Backbone:
């Protein structure tokens, strides 16, 4: 049999304890869910009217302005406490790190301030604190992602209310501006829905276009499948070297994006070993929505060839 | 690359998941496993369904393998304005045309009066078709009709455009047919 020279080289097999990890993800999601009606924000940027928000979406500008939001202190501490307790229980091998984070937050600037910086996507602050507290930036990022989750979800709920995104053609989240963490290929019509790991918003995006660099050259947008898992294609971009994990949905299947996002970690391993780059869900695509880079991306998304990535926020 | 579990845990900076979740690796298997991930690389290309005149958009998934390459999946193109990702049962089964042991991959020719097929090359087939067209056209070409009016046509040739032809191809095809004097010119979409 002739050797296929185009086949990627295969790394050593890594297997994951799916049942335990699924339990952990569900336990984390349960831990960060506060009782209905719990106030999450002391102040929230009421971005004028739905018309103004609609105008932002039509202009390709994401909605959330973290600098204008102030999370409610007691809610912040409540989520922090529940999350770290859960992490200590579910991931005891890193208990020292969770304790160090807890201690660091209690001794220093406080939980409220830290979460505000997370909502502002201040990665440098996160890295500095990780070094100060002696924990891995990855562990702190994971905790920060889920700690900020209920606040971002609440922001998404308020901001997306009454807003339509038929003309949203960007690869980043229309609500909070983060890169997609996962994607689904719908069974009914093969459309692609991107999922934001930060605020859990989903939005439609062109199937044959890289959400990160917007290339539409099909030759540069192959997908990898690992161990015959055809339902979990890993779309890569040879132009910008980024990748995005996908699930090919079955009809009427119930989505569980957090579980999919985390249980597919072997795909991250394979992708990074193939030289592709994982976009972290912590930083946003464009810190300055009206900056030069943002304008260039938006112009490319709108006017380059290719059909519309139209869709609705779900 | 031969990364051990320790190496895997050391992949800091690749994202937030892989390094942190290293403890969820099945330890025994992870250390001892000597198998390899089987990685397949697939490209997607858009095309048009060849069957009918609706012209539905399709996405063809092709994968290189030890035999060179093969189609592994065909599905409706969700971005195509005509079908928005859906396909009829015939179009949805197009995959079976590409992957079918009965599909002809070489030119077969049965000579007049013969009871057997012969394998021929593409160059031979094209030349043969061209020669037959020219012969028929030359033998049946009419410069004028019965009333002496200039017509420059042949009524012994007919052309039928296929559904897979796009607008530009149809334009070129009709120009070619008209240059021969063909008057019986149709397209599958009108039938």
Residues:
């Amino acid at each position: 049999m002739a050797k296929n020279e185009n086949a990627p080289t295969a790394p050593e097999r890594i297997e994951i304890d799916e049942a335990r990890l699924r339990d952990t993800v569900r336990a984390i999601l349960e831990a960060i869910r506060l009782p209905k009606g719990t106030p999450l924000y002391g102040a929230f940027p009421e971005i004028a009217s739905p018309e103004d928000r609609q105008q932002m979406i039509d202009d390709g500008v994401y909605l959330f302005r973290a600098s204008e939001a102030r999370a409610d202190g007691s809610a912040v501490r409540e989520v922090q406490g529940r999350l770290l307790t859960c992490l200590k229980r579910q991931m005891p091998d890193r208990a020292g790190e969770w304790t160090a984070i807890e201690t660091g937050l209690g001794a220093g600037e406080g939980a409220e301030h830290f979460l505000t910086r997370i909502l502002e996507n201040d990665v440098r602050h996160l890295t500095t604190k990780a070094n100060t507290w002696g924990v891995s930036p990855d562990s702190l990022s994971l905790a920060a992602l889920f700690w900020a989750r209920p606040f971002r979800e609440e922001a998404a709920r308020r901001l997306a209310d009454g807003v339509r995104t038929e003309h949203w053609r960007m690869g980043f989240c229309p609500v909070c501006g983060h890169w997609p963490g996962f994607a689904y290929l719908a069974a009914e019509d093969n459309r692609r829905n991107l999922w934001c790991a930060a605020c859990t918003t989903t939005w439609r995006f062109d199937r044959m276009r890289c959400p990160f660099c917007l290339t539409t050259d099909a030759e540069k947008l192959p997908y990898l499948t690992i161990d015959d898992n055809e339902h979990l294609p890993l779309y890569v971009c040879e132009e910008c070297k980024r990748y995005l994990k996908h699930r090919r949905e079955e009809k009427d299947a119930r989505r569980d994006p957090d579980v999919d996002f985390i249980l597919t970690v072997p795909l991250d391993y394979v992708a990074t070993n193939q030289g592709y780059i994982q976009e972290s869900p912590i930083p946003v695509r464009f810190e300055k929505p009206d900056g030069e880079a943002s304008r260039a991306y938006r112009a490319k998304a709108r006017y380059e060839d290719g059909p519309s990535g139209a869709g609705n926020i779900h | 690359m031969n990364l051990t579990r320790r190496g895997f845990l050391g992949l800091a900076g690749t994202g937030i998941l892989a390094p942190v979740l290293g403890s969820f690796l099945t330890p025994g298997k992870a250390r001892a496993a000597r198998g390899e991930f089987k990685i397949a690389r697939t490209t997607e290309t858009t095309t048009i369904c060849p069957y009918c005149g609706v012209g539905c958009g399709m996405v063809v998934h092709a994968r290189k393998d030890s035999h060179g390459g093969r189609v592994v999946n065909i599905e409706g193109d969700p971005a195509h304005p005509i079908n928005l990702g859906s396909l009829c049962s015939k179009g949805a089964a197009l995959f079976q045309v590409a992957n079918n042991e009965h599909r002809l991959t070489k030119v077969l020719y049965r000579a007049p009066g013969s009871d057997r097929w012969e394998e021929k090359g593409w160059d031979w087939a094209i030349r043969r078709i061209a020669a037959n067209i020219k012969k028929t056209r030359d033998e049946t070409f009419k410069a004028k009709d019965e009333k002496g009016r200039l017509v420059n046509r042949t009524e012994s040739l007919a052309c039928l455009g296929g559904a897979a032809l796009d607008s530009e191809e149809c334009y070129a095809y009709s120009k070619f047919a008209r240059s021969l004097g063909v008057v019986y010119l149709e397209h599958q979409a009108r039938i």
